[in-house]
Protein backbone atom coordinates (compact mmCIF):
# COMPACT_ATOMS: atom_id res chain seq x y z
CA UNK A 1 0.00 0.00 0.00
CA UNK A 2 1.27 3.44 -0.90
CA UNK A 3 0.54 6.45 1.30
CA UNK A 4 1.24 10.01 0.33
CA UNK A 5 1.43 12.22 3.40
CA UNK A 6 1.00 15.98 3.40
CA UNK A 7 4.25 16.47 5.28
CA UNK A 8 6.02 15.79 2.03
CA UNK A 9 7.16 12.22 2.32
CA UNK A 10 6.05 8.88 0.97
CA UNK A 11 5.66 5.92 3.26
CA UNK A 12 5.35 2.32 2.21
CA UNK A 13 4.36 -0.61 4.40
CA UNK A 14 5.58 -4.07 3.56
CA UNK A 15 4.59 -7.24 5.32
CA UNK A 16 7.09 -10.10 5.24
CA UNK A 17 4.80 -12.74 3.77
CA UNK A 18 1.67 -11.03 2.60
CA UNK A 19 0.67 -7.56 1.44
CA UNK A 20 -1.14 -5.52 4.04
CA UNK A 21 -4.24 -3.87 2.69
CA UNK A 22 -5.04 -0.24 3.42
CA UNK A 23 -6.60 0.17 6.85
CA UNK A 24 -6.06 -3.43 7.97
CA UNK A 25 -5.04 -3.86 11.58
CA UNK A 26 -1.46 -5.06 11.94
CA UNK A 27 -1.27 -8.11 14.20
CA UNK A 28 1.56 -9.27 16.41
CA UNK A 29 4.59 -11.01 14.92
CA UNK A 30 4.37 -8.92 11.78
CA UNK A 31 7.53 -7.01 11.04
CA UNK A 32 7.00 -3.90 8.93
CA UNK A 33 9.21 -1.36 7.25
CA UNK A 34 8.63 2.29 6.59
CA UNK A 35 10.59 4.19 3.96
CA UNK A 36 10.48 7.97 4.47
CA UNK A 37 12.23 11.01 3.09
CA UNK A 38 15.60 11.53 4.69
CA UNK A 39 14.87 14.99 6.04
CA UNK A 40 12.30 13.53 8.41
CA UNK A 41 14.94 11.27 9.94
CA UNK A 42 13.68 8.20 11.71
CA UNK A 43 10.87 10.33 13.07
CA UNK A 44 9.22 9.40 9.80
CA UNK A 45 7.60 6.36 11.34
CA UNK A 46 6.19 8.34 14.25
CA UNK A 47 4.79 10.96 11.88
CA UNK A 48 3.39 8.34 9.54
CA UNK A 49 1.83 6.41 12.40
CA UNK A 50 0.08 9.53 13.66
CA UNK A 51 -1.20 10.34 10.21
CA UNK A 52 -3.44 7.31 10.55
CA UNK A 53 -5.13 8.64 13.70
CA UNK A 54 -4.29 5.39 15.45
CA UNK A 55 -5.78 5.11 18.93
CA UNK A 56 -2.45 4.66 20.68
CA UNK A 57 -0.70 7.33 18.60
CA UNK A 58 -0.36 9.41 21.75
CA UNK A 59 2.71 7.38 22.69
CA UNK A 60 4.52 8.46 19.55
CA UNK A 61 3.37 12.08 19.65
CA UNK A 62 4.92 12.96 22.98
CA UNK A 63 8.42 12.24 21.80
CA UNK A 64 9.78 9.86 19.21
CA UNK A 65 12.41 8.72 21.68
CA UNK A 66 9.71 7.03 23.75
CA UNK A 67 9.37 4.28 21.16
CA UNK A 68 12.89 3.02 21.75
CA UNK A 69 12.14 -0.28 20.06
CA UNK A 70 12.55 1.45 16.72
CA UNK A 71 15.86 1.33 14.94
CA UNK A 72 16.94 3.16 11.82
CA UNK A 73 19.50 2.94 9.11
CA UNK A 74 20.29 5.09 6.10
CA UNK A 75 20.63 3.07 2.92
CA UNK A 76 21.42 4.45 -0.52
CA UNK A 77 19.39 7.10 -2.34
CA UNK A 78 18.90 9.16 0.82
CA UNK A 79 15.93 7.25 2.19
CA UNK A 80 15.53 6.31 5.80
CA UNK A 81 14.45 2.80 6.60
CA UNK A 82 12.66 2.46 9.88
CA UNK A 83 12.09 -1.15 10.87
CA UNK A 84 9.40 -1.80 13.36
CA UNK A 85 10.40 -5.29 14.39
CA UNK A 86 8.23 -7.99 15.87
CA UNK A 87 8.81 -6.87 19.45
CA UNK A 88 7.01 -3.63 18.72
CA UNK A 89 4.71 -5.14 16.12
CA UNK A 90 3.50 -7.48 18.85
CA UNK A 91 2.45 -4.40 20.74
CA UNK A 92 0.40 -3.53 17.69
CA UNK A 93 0.92 -0.80 15.17
CA UNK A 94 -2.54 0.34 16.22
CA UNK A 95 -3.91 1.12 12.77
CA UNK A 96 -7.64 1.49 12.58
CA UNK A 97 -9.68 0.57 9.59
CA UNK A 98 -10.95 3.33 7.36
CA UNK A 99 -14.21 3.64 9.25
CA UNK A 100 -12.29 5.38 12.04
CA UNK A 101 -10.86 7.97 9.65
CA UNK A 102 -14.03 9.46 8.16
CA UNK A 103 -14.38 13.20 7.75
CA UNK A 104 -17.27 15.39 6.65
CA UNK A 105 -15.94 15.06 3.10
CA UNK A 106 -16.17 11.25 3.01
CA UNK A 107 -18.97 10.66 5.51
CA UNK A 108 -21.77 8.32 4.49
CA UNK A 109 -25.51 8.79 4.30
CA UNK A 110 -25.78 6.42 7.25
CA UNK A 111 -23.61 8.83 9.27
CA UNK A 112 -25.92 11.69 8.34
CA UNK A 113 -29.05 9.70 9.20
CA UNK A 114 -27.75 8.56 12.58
CA UNK A 115 -26.78 12.11 13.45
CA UNK A 116 -30.16 13.47 12.35
CA UNK A 117 -31.98 11.04 14.65
CA UNK A 118 -29.67 11.74 17.58
CA UNK A 119 -29.86 15.51 17.16
CA UNK A 120 -33.64 15.34 16.96
CA UNK A 121 -33.87 13.36 20.21
CA UNK A 122 -31.40 15.66 21.97
CA UNK A 123 -33.20 18.83 20.83
CA UNK A 124 -36.53 17.45 22.00
CA UNK A 125 -35.03 16.57 25.37
CA UNK A 126 -33.52 20.04 25.77
CA UNK A 127 -37.01 21.53 25.63
CA UNK A 128 -37.87 19.82 28.92
CA UNK A 129 -37.09 21.13 32.40
CA UNK A 130 -33.63 20.00 33.50
CA UNK A 131 -34.49 17.19 35.94
CA UNK A 132 -37.30 15.86 33.77
CA UNK A 133 -34.89 15.89 30.82
CA UNK A 134 -32.17 13.96 32.63
CA UNK A 135 -34.63 11.41 33.97
CA UNK A 136 -36.33 10.96 30.58
CA UNK A 137 -33.13 10.65 28.58
CA UNK A 138 -31.76 8.07 30.98
CA UNK A 139 -34.95 6.05 30.55
CA UNK A 140 -34.82 6.49 26.76
CA UNK A 141 -31.32 5.04 26.50
CA UNK A 142 -32.09 2.26 28.98
CA UNK A 143 -35.34 1.10 27.36
CA UNK A 144 -35.01 2.04 23.68
CA UNK A 145 -31.54 3.07 22.50
CA UNK A 146 -29.53 0.40 24.33
CA UNK A 147 -31.64 -2.56 23.06
CA UNK A 148 -31.59 -1.16 19.50
CA UNK A 149 -27.80 -0.75 19.50
CA UNK A 150 -27.11 -3.97 21.46
CA UNK A 151 -25.39 -1.92 24.16
CA UNK A 152 -27.29 -3.91 26.76
CA UNK A 153 -26.10 -7.24 25.31
CA UNK A 154 -22.52 -6.03 25.26
CA UNK A 155 -22.75 -4.95 28.89
CA UNK A 156 -24.28 -8.32 29.81
CA UNK A 157 -21.42 -10.11 28.09
CA UNK A 158 -18.70 -8.15 29.85
CA UNK A 159 -20.34 -8.42 33.25
CA UNK A 160 -20.59 -12.18 32.75
CA UNK A 161 -16.90 -12.24 31.89
CA UNK A 162 -15.85 -10.34 35.02
CA UNK A 163 -18.45 -11.64 37.47
CA UNK A 164 -19.58 -15.03 36.12
CA UNK A 165 -21.26 -15.97 39.40
CA UNK A 166 -23.57 -12.96 39.45
CA UNK A 167 -27.25 -14.04 39.29
CA UNK A 168 -28.98 -13.29 35.99
CA UNK A 169 -31.60 -10.98 37.51
CA UNK A 170 -28.94 -9.00 39.37
CA UNK A 171 -26.91 -8.63 36.18
CA UNK A 172 -29.98 -7.47 34.24
CA UNK A 173 -30.72 -4.86 36.87
CA UNK A 174 -27.12 -3.68 36.77
CA UNK A 175 -27.14 -3.40 32.97
CA UNK A 176 -30.25 -1.22 33.14
CA UNK A 177 -28.49 1.04 35.64
CA UNK A 178 -25.43 1.27 33.39
CA UNK A 179 -27.48 2.29 30.36
CA UNK A 180 -29.55 4.74 32.39
CA UNK A 181 -26.41 6.40 33.72
CA UNK A 182 -25.03 6.63 30.17
CA UNK A 183 -28.18 8.40 28.99
CA UNK A 184 -28.13 10.82 31.90
CA UNK A 185 -24.46 11.59 31.32
CA UNK A 186 -24.99 12.30 27.64
CA UNK A 187 -27.84 14.77 28.08
CA UNK A 188 -26.14 16.42 31.08
CA UNK A 189 -23.12 17.20 28.94
CA UNK A 190 -25.36 18.74 26.29
CA UNK A 191 -27.17 20.85 28.91
CA UNK A 192 -24.23 23.21 29.40
CA UNK A 193 -25.31 26.09 31.68
CA UNK A 194 -28.01 24.07 33.44
CA UNK A 195 -25.57 21.29 34.18
CA UNK A 196 -23.11 23.89 35.46
CA UNK A 197 -25.76 25.21 37.85
CA UNK A 198 -26.44 21.68 39.06
CA UNK A 199 -22.74 21.31 39.87
CA UNK A 200 -22.46 24.68 41.59
CA UNK A 201 -23.04 23.19 45.01
CA UNK A 202 -21.25 19.90 44.35
CA UNK A 203 -18.91 18.74 47.08
CA UNK A 204 -15.31 18.91 45.87
CA UNK A 205 -12.99 17.14 48.26
CA UNK A 206 -10.34 14.51 48.63
CA UNK A 207 -6.73 13.98 49.70
CA UNK A 208 -5.45 15.39 46.41
CA UNK A 209 -6.78 18.93 46.91
CA UNK A 210 -3.69 20.19 48.73
CA UNK A 211 -1.40 18.83 46.02
CA UNK A 212 -3.58 20.44 43.35
CA UNK A 213 -3.48 23.85 44.99
CA UNK A 214 0.29 23.59 45.48
CA UNK A 215 0.84 22.64 41.85
CA UNK A 216 -1.28 25.58 40.71
CA UNK A 217 0.75 27.96 42.89
CA UNK A 218 4.04 26.51 41.59
CA UNK A 219 2.99 26.47 37.96
CA UNK A 220 3.55 22.71 37.74
CA UNK A 221 1.69 20.78 35.02
CA UNK A 222 -1.30 18.82 36.29
CA UNK A 223 -2.63 15.78 34.48
CA UNK A 224 -6.06 14.73 35.72
CA UNK A 225 -6.95 11.12 34.97
CA UNK A 226 -10.35 9.51 35.08
CA UNK A 227 -12.48 6.82 33.47
CA UNK A 228 -15.97 6.57 32.02
CA UNK A 229 -17.44 6.57 35.49
CA UNK A 230 -20.39 8.55 36.89
CA UNK A 231 -20.24 11.60 34.68
CA UNK A 232 -16.62 11.86 33.57
CA UNK A 233 -17.03 15.54 32.64
CA UNK A 234 -18.47 16.57 36.00
CA UNK A 235 -15.09 16.99 37.79
CA UNK A 236 -13.67 19.16 35.00
CA UNK A 237 -16.74 21.40 34.90
CA UNK A 238 -16.97 21.67 38.69
CA UNK A 239 -13.29 22.61 39.02
CA UNK A 240 -13.67 25.12 36.19
CA UNK A 241 -16.28 26.89 38.31
CA UNK A 242 -13.68 27.07 41.08
CA UNK A 243 -11.27 28.97 38.82
CA UNK A 244 -9.26 26.08 37.34
CA UNK A 245 -8.70 26.01 33.58
CA UNK A 246 -8.53 22.39 32.44
CA UNK A 247 -8.01 21.28 28.86
CA UNK A 248 -8.53 17.83 27.47
CA UNK A 249 -7.44 15.26 24.93
CA UNK A 250 -10.21 13.18 23.48
CA UNK A 251 -10.71 10.40 20.96
CA UNK A 252 -12.94 11.62 18.11
CA UNK A 253 -16.16 9.76 17.39
CA UNK A 254 -16.04 7.87 14.10
CA UNK A 255 -19.21 9.61 12.86
CA UNK A 256 -17.96 13.12 11.91
CA UNK A 257 -21.42 14.72 12.14
CA UNK A 258 -21.89 13.54 15.71
CA UNK A 259 -18.30 14.37 16.58
CA UNK A 260 -18.81 18.01 15.57
CA UNK A 261 -21.43 18.75 18.24
CA UNK A 262 -19.91 16.30 20.75
CA UNK A 263 -16.66 18.25 20.55
CA UNK A 264 -18.53 21.51 21.05
CA UNK A 265 -19.87 20.35 24.43
CA UNK A 266 -16.29 19.91 25.67
CA UNK A 267 -14.87 23.11 24.17
CA UNK A 268 -17.46 25.28 25.90
CA UNK A 269 -16.73 23.73 29.28
CA UNK A 270 -13.26 24.91 30.29
CA UNK A 271 -9.79 24.97 28.73
CA UNK A 272 -8.72 23.99 25.20
CA UNK A 273 -9.69 20.55 23.93
CA UNK A 274 -7.58 18.58 21.48
CA UNK A 275 -8.44 15.60 19.29
CA UNK A 276 -6.05 12.66 19.41
CA UNK A 277 -3.53 12.75 16.61
CA UNK A 278 -0.17 14.36 15.92
CA UNK A 279 -1.29 18.00 16.06
CA UNK A 280 -3.79 17.55 18.86
CA UNK A 281 -1.44 15.71 21.16
CA UNK A 282 1.37 18.16 20.54
CA UNK A 283 -0.99 20.99 21.46
CA UNK A 284 -2.17 19.18 24.57
CA UNK A 285 1.38 18.48 25.77
CA UNK A 286 2.43 22.04 24.97
CA UNK A 287 -0.39 23.34 27.17
CA UNK A 288 0.79 21.16 30.03
CA UNK A 289 4.42 22.16 29.60
CA UNK A 290 3.41 25.78 30.05
CA UNK A 291 2.10 24.94 33.51
CA UNK A 292 -1.41 24.14 32.38
CA UNK A 293 -3.87 21.45 33.40
CA UNK A 294 -5.43 18.74 31.28
CA UNK A 295 -7.53 15.63 31.61
CA UNK A 296 -7.31 12.17 30.06
CA UNK A 297 -9.54 9.10 30.13
CA UNK A 298 -7.52 5.90 30.17
CA UNK A 299 -10.07 3.10 30.44
CA UNK A 300 -10.61 2.33 26.76
CA UNK A 301 -8.92 -0.68 25.22
CA UNK A 302 -5.80 0.39 23.32
CA UNK A 303 -4.98 -2.32 20.82
CA UNK A 304 -1.36 -3.39 21.03
CA UNK A 305 -0.69 -1.84 24.43
CA UNK A 306 0.62 -3.79 27.44
CA UNK A 307 -1.92 -5.94 29.24
CA UNK A 308 -2.55 -4.80 32.80
CA UNK A 309 -4.93 -6.61 35.17
CA UNK A 310 -8.26 -4.77 35.31
CA UNK A 311 -11.12 -6.17 37.36
CA UNK A 312 -9.22 -9.44 37.57
CA UNK A 313 -8.64 -9.88 33.83
CA UNK A 314 -5.80 -8.65 31.59
CA UNK A 315 -6.74 -5.57 29.58
CA UNK A 316 -4.72 -3.71 26.97
CA UNK A 317 -3.99 -0.35 28.57
CA UNK A 318 -2.25 2.59 26.93
CA UNK A 319 0.57 4.02 29.05
CA UNK A 320 0.19 7.51 27.59
CA UNK A 321 -0.58 9.06 30.98
CA UNK A 322 2.66 7.76 32.49
CA UNK A 323 4.68 8.66 29.40
CA UNK A 324 3.52 12.28 29.47
CA UNK A 325 3.84 12.65 33.23
CA UNK A 326 7.37 11.27 33.33
CA UNK A 327 8.40 13.33 30.33
CA UNK A 328 7.28 16.73 31.67
CA UNK A 329 7.14 16.03 35.43
CA UNK A 330 3.38 16.49 35.63
CA UNK A 331 1.38 15.89 38.79
CA UNK A 332 -0.95 12.94 38.11
CA UNK A 333 -4.26 13.31 39.92
CA UNK A 334 -7.06 10.74 39.57
CA UNK A 335 -10.50 12.28 39.96
CA UNK A 336 -14.08 11.09 39.55
CA UNK A 337 -17.59 12.52 39.49
CA UNK A 338 -19.73 10.18 41.59
CA UNK A 339 -23.45 10.33 40.88
CA UNK A 340 -25.44 10.60 44.08
CA UNK A 341 -28.57 8.59 44.97
CA UNK A 342 -30.90 11.37 43.79
CA UNK A 343 -29.60 10.78 40.24
CA UNK A 344 -28.79 14.44 39.59
CA UNK A 345 -26.13 15.69 42.00
CA UNK A 346 -22.46 14.70 42.20
CA UNK A 347 -19.59 14.39 44.59
CA UNK A 348 -16.22 15.31 43.06
CA UNK A 349 -13.43 13.22 44.56
CA UNK A 350 -9.82 14.35 44.02
CA UNK A 351 -7.65 11.39 44.95
CA UNK A 352 -4.08 11.12 46.22
CA UNK A 353 -1.53 11.82 43.45
CA UNK A 354 0.02 8.87 41.64
CA UNK A 355 3.71 8.50 42.51
CA UNK A 356 6.17 8.76 39.64
CA UNK A 357 7.76 5.33 39.20
CA UNK A 358 7.83 3.12 36.12
CA UNK A 359 5.27 3.57 33.38
CA UNK A 360 3.82 0.11 34.07
CA UNK A 361 3.54 0.64 37.81
CA UNK A 362 1.89 4.03 37.33
CA UNK A 363 -0.75 2.50 35.08
CA UNK A 364 -1.30 -0.34 37.56
CA UNK A 365 -1.82 2.24 40.33
CA UNK A 366 -4.31 4.16 38.20
CA UNK A 367 -6.16 0.99 37.29
CA UNK A 368 -6.38 -0.04 40.94
CA UNK A 369 -7.95 3.31 41.84
CA UNK A 370 -10.59 2.95 39.13
CA UNK A 371 -11.32 -0.63 40.15
CA UNK A 372 -12.13 0.54 43.68
CA UNK A 373 -14.65 3.04 42.32
CA UNK A 374 -16.27 0.45 40.06
CA UNK A 375 -16.57 -2.10 42.85
CA UNK A 376 -18.28 0.50 45.04
CA UNK A 377 -20.69 1.68 42.30
CA UNK A 378 -20.63 -0.80 39.39
CA UNK A 379 -23.66 0.73 37.68
CA UNK A 380 -21.78 3.98 37.19
CA UNK A 381 -19.05 2.54 34.95
CA UNK A 382 -19.60 2.22 31.20
CA UNK A 383 -19.58 -1.56 30.82
CA UNK A 384 -20.55 -1.14 27.18
CA UNK A 385 -16.95 -0.44 26.16
CA UNK A 386 -15.14 -3.46 24.71
CA UNK A 387 -12.51 -3.26 27.42
CA UNK A 388 -11.19 -6.82 27.35
CA UNK A 389 -10.05 -9.03 24.49
Report on this structure.
- The chain has helices at residues 43-51, 58-62, 86-89, 109-126, 130-149, 151-162, 168-190, 193-199, 209-218, 234-240, 256-267, 278-289, 320-328, 359-376; strands at 2-4, 10-12, 14-15, 32-37, 71-73, 79-84, 203-205, 222-226, 246-250, 273-275, 293-297, 307-310, 313-316, 331-339, 346-350.
- By secondary structure, it is an alpha/beta fold.
- Strands 7-15-14-8-11-9-10 form a seven-stranded mixed β-sheet, sandwiched between helices. Strands 3-4-6-5 form a four-stranded antiparallel β-sheet. It has a two-stranded antiparallel ribbon with strand order 1-2.
- The radius of gyration is 22 Å and the shape is globular.
Salient structural properties:
about 400 residues, 4-stranded antiparallel β-sheet, about 15% strand
Helix fraction, binned, reads 40-55%
Secondary-structure element series: EEEEHHEEHHHHHHEHEHEHEHEEEHEEH
Which whole number gives the mean pLDDT? 78
Determine the number of helices (DSSP H or I, runs of at least 4 residues): 14
Radius of gyration: 22 Å
Strand ordering within the main sheet:
7-15-14-8-11-9-10
Strand content: 15-25%
Give the structural class. Answer: alpha/beta
Largest sheet features: 7 strands, mixed
| Distance between the ends | 28 Å
Poorly predicted runs are 1-100
Strand tally: 15
Shape: globular
Brief write-up:
By secondary structure, the chain is an alpha/beta fold.
Task: Describe the protein's topology.
Layout: E1 2-4, E2 10-12, E3 14-15, E4 32-37, H1 43-51, H2 58-62, E5 71-73, E6 79-84, H3 86-89, H4 109-126, H5 130-149, H6 151-162, H7 168-190, H8 193-199, E7 203-205, H9 209-218, E8 222-226, H10 234-240, E9 246-250, H11 256-267, E10 273-275, H12 278-289, E11 293-297, E12 307-310, E13 313-316, H13 320-328, E14 331-339, E15 346-350, H14 359-376
Parallel strand pairs: 7-15, 8-11, 8-14, 9-10, 9-11
Antiparallel strand pairs: 1-2, 3-4, 4-6, 5-6, 12-13, 14-15
Helix pairs in contact: 5-7, 6-7, 13-14
Amino acid sequence: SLFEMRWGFIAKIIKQQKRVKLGRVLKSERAVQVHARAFHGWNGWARFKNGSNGHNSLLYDVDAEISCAMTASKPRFGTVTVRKCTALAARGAGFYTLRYMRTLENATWADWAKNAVLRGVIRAALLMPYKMRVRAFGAFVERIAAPLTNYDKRAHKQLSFIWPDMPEDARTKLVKGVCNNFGRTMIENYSDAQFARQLKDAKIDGPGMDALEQAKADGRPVLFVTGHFGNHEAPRRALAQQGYTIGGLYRPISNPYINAHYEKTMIEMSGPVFAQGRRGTMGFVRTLKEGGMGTLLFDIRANGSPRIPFMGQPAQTAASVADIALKIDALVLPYVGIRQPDGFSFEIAIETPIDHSTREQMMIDLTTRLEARINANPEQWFWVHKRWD
